[in-house]
Amino acid sequence: SGGNGAGGGGSMGDYMAQEDDWDRDLLLDPAWEKQQRKAETAANRICKVLAVNQENEHLMEDYERLASDLLEWIRRTIPWLEDRVPQKTMQEMQQKLEDFRDYRRVHKPPKVQEKCQLEINFNTLQTKLRLSNRPAFMPSEGRMVSDINNGWQHLEQAEKGYEEWLLNEIRRLERLDHLAEKFRQKASIHEAWTDGKEAMLKHRDYETATLSDIKALIRKHEAFESDLAAHQDRVEQIAAIAQELNELDYYDSHNVNTRCQKICDQWDALGSLTHSRREALEKTEKQLETIDQLHLEYAKRAAPFNNWMESAMEDLQDMFIVHTIEEIEGLISAHDQFKSTLPDADREREAPLAIHKEAQRIAESNHIKLSGSNPYTTVTPQIINSKWEKRDHALLEEQGKQQSNEHLRRQFASQANVVGPWIQTKMEEIGRISIEMNGTLEDQLNHLKRYERSIVDYKPNLDLLEQQHQLIQEALIFDNKHTNYTMEHIRVGWEQLLTTIARTINEVENQILTRDAKGISQEQMQEFRASFNHFDKDHGGALGPEEFKACLISLGYDVENDRQGDAEFNRIMSVVDPNHSGLVTFQAFIDFMSRETTDTDTADQVIASFKVLAGDKNFITAEELRRELPPDQAEYCIARMAPYQGPDAVPGALDYKSFSTALYGESDL
């Protein structure tokens, strides 16, 4: 062993006995007290350094855990937002929209807070590392703040696309439902019209008919052919709607196609039967020589009126879809105009009836049997009256719905036009507070926290707006001319406001940490802020390279535009902007301004302190550490110190030099 150890060949027992003798001598030696005080000072320095290092390691572990949890949540959520598999029904898509609203209201806000807290923890940790002369913290690969921001941006993009897709799908399904209902309506009308037509066309009544009956049958058949031709357009419309439903991938296309095919097959059959019956009637007609001219005239007048009656019924039963008061008022106006034409239509109805009455008079005088009812149509004016009364009710009901929608629009716009400017005003006020020099940093911090409380207290206004927005979405309202603010604008602004106030408070807290650690006076801090603000021309809270260079020149630094000046400026920029972002924050500026005047711990100072505790030895033992340091910090050192490998090593010797350099990033811990 060395000069402070036992003799060359002594046992460990002899060595310990000799140390007991030295302890008794030291108690009587005045120099021992001086040495003891020196050891206490060294132990205190080591405790301070180790406490800082332990706290920093806890912050690093917290950051890694929070970053990992947040990135995992983002990884799980993005595939859900990118799922674009459409549902078949409006109810299923409405459930998806409800799930998305729950995500926005319940699941995402805590993650926004976690992301903000993670940035705050990261900034605080880096500040503490700089203040304790430790190397900057580098998170694990894939867990950098930039990685989290990239993941969050990907999440926001997926979220925006998902909401747009949901609304487009709802519009598409609404269009499909409307088309399907229109198909069913037209198909029902057509099927009702064709009911019994095949049996009528197959009836062989002409075989036993009189001459007058044959004439009536022929004219009736001509009227039917006119009616048949008039219905051709509806059949084409039914087929076109079915085709459109197929192209839009309607979920019940199979039943639609089956019904459409049945209608088309029946239509072909009616055409064939009509042609066959006409040939039979014309063949019989050749055997007859007289015809009742009144019946012919009646058929010509009744057929157009019958077609008009069928068309009017179809118009009255037609489906409609509107989104504004103006559209429904237009439909009501058109319906009123239709009702004004009814007196003329009634006169048109009376004309063939007069002809029919004349035919009956002639038939009676000539002993001709005629049907008492209209042989060409079963539609009566009473049916028309009933249809337009139903149309009145439907239009008025829709008008009430659109008035309710307009009220919802105005209600949302009134609230949004207050909340939106309030958020913008608060953002501007926070920006002014962060660069003003009114009062101390504590005054600024208290001012910002009052702002934070006022922002939190304002949250019910945002909740009310969310409720109003939900009512608008449930009513399927897609536009609002009364405001330029959308709910998405308000949400983004609110999240930015919460993040900005939290980040600004954290910046001021870090400035307080720097001021206290560096011993900067309030006057110096205000001078730093005044210089920084003077060159921060755009009031963005950061200096660009040219602005920072001008500031340094004004402070007397030799960074003019020559080779030496550029080299010095590049050196300084590497200190204040280690990430090469091209911006110098106020925190980095005050760190730089106070760096050269502050007494900070170094690795050499810690090594010297350990040497004192070790009695000038090149190593230290676990017993010495436990004797001189608090228990938790002694165990911290023992667990991390490597075994000492020098020639003067004893069993259990620990290497305090490599441990001290590792604390400051000069070697691996």
Automatic annotation (TrEMBL):
SUPFAM superfamilies given in the database record: EF-hand, Spectrin repeat
InterPro entries documented for this protein: EF-hand-dom_pair, EF-hand_Ca_insen, EF_Hand_1_Ca_BS, EF_hand_dom, Spectrin/alpha-actinin, Spectrin_repeat
GO molecular function, one term: actin binding
UniProt keywords, alphabetically: Actin-binding, Calcium, Coiled coil, Metal-binding, Repeat
GO cellular component terms, semicolon-separated: actin cytoskeleton
CDD domains referenced in this protein's UniProt entry, alphabetically: EFh, SPEC
Boundaries of every EF-hand domain copy: 523-558, 564-599
Domain of life: Eukaryota
Coiled-coil portions: 214-248
Name recorded for this polypeptide: Actinin alpha 4
Organism of derivation: Panthera tigris altaica
Taxonomic lineage: Eukaryota, Metazoa, Chordata, Craniata, Vertebrata
Protein encoded by which gene: ACTN4
